[in-house]
Structures are given as structure tokens and as C-alpha cells.
Design goal:
The complex is a heterodimer.
Chain A: H1 9-12, E1 21-24, H2 34-43, E2 48-51, H3 62-67, E3 71-76, H4 83-90, E4 95-98, H5 101-113, E5 117-120, E6 134-137, E7 140-146, E8 150-161, E9 166-167, H6 176-181, E10 183-194, E11 213-216
Parallel strand pairs in A: 1-2, 1-8, 2-3, 3-4, 8-10, 10-11
Antiparallel strand pairs in A: 5-7, 6-7, 8-9
Chain B: H1 5-13, E1 21-24, H2 28-31, E2 43-46, E3 50-53, E4 76-82, H3 85-93, E5 99-103, E6 106-108, E7 113-114, H4 129-135, E8 138-142, E9 154-155, E10 170-172, E11 176-181, E12 184-190, H5 196-202, E13 207-208
Parallel strand pairs in B: 1-2, 1-5, 5-8, 6-9, 8-10, 12-13
Antiparallel strand pairs in B: 2-3, 3-4, 6-7, 10-11, 11-12
Classes of the chains: A alpha/beta, B alpha/beta.
Chain lengths: 232, 218
Amino acid sequence: MINKTVKNAQEALQGITDGMTLMLGGFGLCGIPENAIQELLRLGVKDLTCISNNAGVDDFGIGLLLQKRQVKKMISSYVGENAEFERQLLSGELEVELTPQGTLAERIRAGGAGIPAFFTPAGYGTEVGEGKESREFNGKMYLMESWLKADFAFVKAWKGDTAGNLIYKGTARNFNPMMATAGKITVAEVEELVPAGELDPNEIHTPGIFVQRIFQGEKYEKRIEQKTVRTV
Amino acid sequence: MSLDKHGIAKRIAQEVENGMYVNLGIGIPTLVANYLPQGIEVVLQSENGLLGMGPFPTEDEVDADLINAGKQTITTLSGSSIFSSADSFGMIRGEHVHLTILGAMEVSERGDIANWKIPGKMVKGMGGAMDLVASAKNIIVAMQHTARDGSSKLLKNCTLPITGLNCVKKIVTDLAVIEVTDKGFKLLERAPGVSVEDIQKATEGHLIVEGEIPEVQL
């Protein structure tokens, strides 16, 4: 089996340069590639285009990259919860392409699956549709949306093996499986890295073909945005 | 007496039927889960990738890898399933989700909805709202009838950027239950003690009143 293992985040991010387009998995702070983000901060690469459903919070996730002005453009569906983001956006320092969440997921899936464009009803008749081709199918209007690809895709999984096969846990799956397919170089960081053969092939969510580099991450903080509990 | 947010949620809960897959938006819609009719089976979808959303966890059950679309910690139920965002919106776009309940800033008499942006003030993004309103077979909006300054939020035409056209089927506000028809807002029920005149005054769009209008029964 081809071995995709690299030592750590430092090795996994080799080749990354200013101006690149990146995908970063996660929904809010759930399932984000914490180690890759730390390494991006350490490297200080800038003028990045980041494709990610959200932009983190002020002091965690992609919010950390925004604080250091490393991001030129975000492609996201929801960027609340981040005051620095809003400040940079309103002052024009940061460019943002807001995309409906399902459209974003499908654009990434299309990028990985070799489908340059598709039609979706989401956003027809709204600002999102301005300048885009629209077409009627069975009496309903649809917008044409195009694929997204990235120079590097950073995904976070629960378990992975040396062949790059991935298993996600809970709703930390979210955008990670599609992003894994759409990176020229996909870097997977996992909580537990095992030798090929130890994961049941029936249980794999992302087949190793999509993953170029894999490493076991460290010090996962897994911050919770809205801790809500019930009392028994 | 007008309905408070729990009253609005209770009234919307009456619209939920046995066997439905339902997506609840953030805010009042989330409360609907607390008032679902006894004895029916309903599956709640959370668009970040979960079918069968359970209650909030106990302190011991809290799992950072298990949240809903409002980023709150939650639990699964027996029979729950977890999937990617692409699969999740496939369910939504493919009309497999029967009912969407969400909040709005404005609704027009044709059923257009605005709920994602206030130019120059709020730029948080649309999240999954545009996908949901473009595809759901049945959309119920939970909202206040008027803004804080008393201006109507049920309008001839939305003034804020649109989330989706011609999609809202029913609106439950603090004052009334309204069906969106080809001819405008049809008044179905009024909140306890609220008169048809009160509702008329609070509604800028065309309000259709036919016969006696009953009070909401909770």
C-alpha cells in the first residue's frame, strides 16, 4: 500500500506559498484542522484565499489567520461570530464571496468529481444570482454554479491509516469529505493514525486515493462555541 | 394578548405531522422541538450533517464533535445518522426534507423572504437558508409581526436583500397565523385578544379576511 505518512504539520505543509487557494474543513469550530492552522500561522504565508464554511472566531480557527492579516479572500456561507472578520470586511481589507451552504458543499464536491458546473435553485432571484447564468428546468428557475478546487485542502478526521483512508466522528465530518477530494494536495490530520489494514474497509468515509499526506495531530483543543446542557 | 416566542413555537408545532423529516432554523424554530405533539414520530434534520437530533447533552455527555447547525452541543437518538454537508444539502435540495421552519426579517405577500443581510449593518452570511427556502416543499416562518419601531414586517415587497422568492407557505407571528396565497396574506387565526383590526394595522401587504377569524388554540 502506498504510504502517505508524513512526520508532522511542518512536513505536511511543505510547498505552501503566498497567494495560494486553500480549503479548510469544519463547521464552526467543529472538525477544523487545528494543527494545519497553527502551522500556517507559524509559516506566515499571506494573500491566501480560504474556502471554508465559516471563518472561525476571533481567537481560534481561521480567526487566528485573519488576526495576522494572512487572508486576502474568504469563500464561506456564514461568517458571524467573528468581530475582526466583520471589521476587515466593512473596511474593505478583506474580500468575501458569500455562497449558500449547500452550493458551497456541492461546488467543492464538483471540484473533486471533475464536474465544472451544475444548476441549483439556491440563490435564484437574490444577490447570489447576479451575473450568473440561469435556466429553467421543469418550470423552475436554477442558477449555474461552478466548481471549486484548491492548491491545498486541509481536513481533519478522527482515525486514519498510512494509506490515507479516513474515518470521521460525529458532525465533525461536515465539509471534510468533499474538501479531501478537491485539493491538488490534500493534507489529512487525524487523532489516531494506524497502519494500513487496521481500519475496516467497509467503514472508510474518505478513500486514501484523495489524500496525499497524512499525520497524527497533537494537542487538539476542540473548542466548543455554544456549550448547551440539560440537567437531569 | 399577543403570543410570546414559546406561544409561536407551540402554534407551529401543531403543523408538524407524523412521519415528517423537519429542519428547524435558529431562534424560535428551535423551540418548536419542545412542543411537538405527543405520540408522533418526527425526525429533526440539522444541516451540518445529522438526522435524528436529540436533546442537549448532560454535562457528562458533552461531545465537541457533536453539534447542531446553531453550533450548540447536542445528542443523537437511536436511529440517528450522520453524513457530510453535501449529502445533507442533497436531502434538502432533493426535497426529501418535508418541512422547514425558519425565522425572517421580512416576508412579502407573494411569499418572498428576507432574512440574511442588512446592508451596511450585518454581513454574517446566508448559511443554509437560501438552499432551504429554494427547495423545501413546505416553509413556515416564525417571526414578530412588526419591527421595534412598529413598522410592518409583512410587506407588499421586501425591502431587504432577498433570501428566496415565492416560497413561504405559512407565517406564525406574535399576532396571527397567516397563509400565503396567490392573492396575498390570508388571515387564518388571531392571537388571543388580538383583533382583526390590530392585525390589519400591523400588516402592510394585502391581508385577506374571510368570515369569522378564530383565536389561536394552544
